[in-house]
Amino acid sequence: MKIKDIVCGILLVSSLPVFAQKNATIEVYADQASQIIPKEIYGQFAEHLGSCIYGGLWVGEDSDIPNIKGYRKDVFEALKELSVPVMRWPGGCFAVKYRWGGGVGPKAQRPKLTNITWGGTIEDNSFGTNEFLNLCEMLGCEPYISGNVGSGTVEELAAWVEYMTSDDDTPMANLRRKNGREKPWKVKYLGIGNESWGCGGNMEPEYYSSLYRRYQTYCCNFSGNKLYKIASGASDYNYDWTKVLMKNVGDKMQGLSLHYYTVGEWNHKGSALDFNNDEYYATIGKCLEVESVIEKHSAIMDKYDKDKKIGLILDEWGTWWDVEPGTDPGHLFQQNTMRDALVASLSLDVFNRHTDRLKMTNIAQVVNVLQSMILTKGDKMLLTPTYYIFKMYKVHQDAIYVPAEVKCDHIKDFKDRDISLVSTTVSKKDGVMHISLSNADLKDSEKISINIPGVEINSIKGEILTSKNIADHNTFEVSDKIQLEKFEEYKLKNDVLVVKLPAKSIVTLELK
């Protein structure tokens, strides 16, 4: 019988709050490990939205805020520490109105633009194609360009690809040289449109399919650069969109995008900081529902692409709360708590289980917007709980996924969704095994017995992210309230590792 990665526990709790003494078991099948977790599962997303770009990633060379060639130094160094594998830019909904030509050349000559999508902010265009691609080079990550299909032209997108990637003696390549970049960049990922069912043109899938086929034809490979072309895919439960694109576009795309946000399911999105236990468990239930969404889209793709040559690209995901009081509603600035950290860890555990089809994800967004890694205010900067999850989980990038069977207590949220209180990702790479564990229970710790037969363990070390209250978060006044700490609540006897995992906590263990 084929082993499932996650097996539902026997106990289902029908109402909140009902708690029992928590004991869980995890069976690790190291001998069945074969699937690589692509590093791109840990991708980031940077949109021209609020202060994600200006004041977040970019302050300019003349800023009083310490910078490296205009890139904010503290933010750059924090992102470098995460080993960011891929970054999507310039949107999002901003991308489908973006004219790339205004963002190249001498900065003093670039036209200002009104960000009509996000708050009407006036931008000076000082952060454009060169600045983004140079940043990716400095970070050592793949750029993922989101092209303008909604309001742009085929000629415009084709010229952009040529500007970025051609080493020929042509007008676009020579324009790049004139703008200070002699050799072309390597640009692997190209999104052809964004949310074409909504802000990207309010299209029907049949119309977009034809449009995609036309646009991708003229986005050519230059000078040894090979594009991985990603079609604008569905939002969460729109399975018909996936069906139509798989039928009408097929192998003319290498990837198909998907967007899924964890949002409040009451009459508003809800506060990032002020929420009760019912709302917390509903958040976890909504977060975990992404697994069935991935499975259903994947099943449709399997009918048309049984060899799984087309990747599912979840290039927008994360929590979406009401903006913080006193901030611009169009800038989507929200705080980030231990609840968000658990959403991140649980989501990544789901993603890691489905990399036979899921090839990239991009959390929204990297700085100052939605579920961000980093928040800035003037010259101040803080790392969010979500940042620390990505730091803990970076050990799984390009590692071999190890199947693991979890048996634990479950609970029901107000929508009768089943929530497994314990989640895990196990991987191995270069002779080292890493086990990430999450306890989503608000009250009780978990005694977890992990059976790891056939694996010789000589040393163990661990780190933990937790806090007293689920709404705890870092502020510009107290920026280190939540941070990684050393974890030693484990014992190894024979092939069984026993871990005591506190309530609302995430742990990563390194086994050598």
What does this structure look like?
- There is one protein chain.
- The chain is α/β, with parallel strands linked by helices and 512 residues long.
- The protein folds into 2 domains: 124 residues, Immunoglobulin-like, CATH 2.60.40.1180; 292 residues, TIM Barrel (Alpha-Beta Barrel), CATH 3.20.20.80.
- The protein is 23% helix and 27% strand.
- The protein contains 10 helices and 27 strands.
- Helix 3 crosses helix 4.
- The longest helix is centred in the C-terminal third of the chain and has 16 residues.
- The radius of gyration is 23 Å and the shape is globular.
- The protein starts with 21 loop residues before the first strand and ends with a strand.
- The N terminus is likely disordered.
